[in-house]
Amino acid sequence: MPIPVIANPDSEILQLSHEKFRWKTAGKIDLLENLFDDELVFIHLNGHISSKKKWINELRSKRFIYQYIDQREASVKLYGDSAVLVGNAVFSVSMSSYSNTYHLVYTEVYAKKTGEWKLVNIHTCAY
User: Counting Cβ atoms within 10 Å, is residue 34 exposed (0-12), middle (13-18) or buried (19+)?
Assistant: First the structure.
């Protein structure tokens, strides 16, 4: 499902981030896979680092399931063909045999590649 073109790049990044959360809770892994750059680096809350391939496999196997994500704030700064989004949200997730809720601050870095925004880096930490 393509994202509609938006004239304001800040709004486009905010919408992509919001859609990404919706896709996570709806289990739309193919859409996430398309958004993630092939060289994505995801730094988790506990310092664990995942590649795109590893994270997509975790989501497909349902070892990690997003139950809900309540995005509280987000702002974007543009740097040419790169964008940095900083936000905070409440994440309710199931991992293997347990569930938990996390209050997280996150940074998402997007790069425009061949005319499309790709998510190249995610870094989360608790607050």
Answer: middle
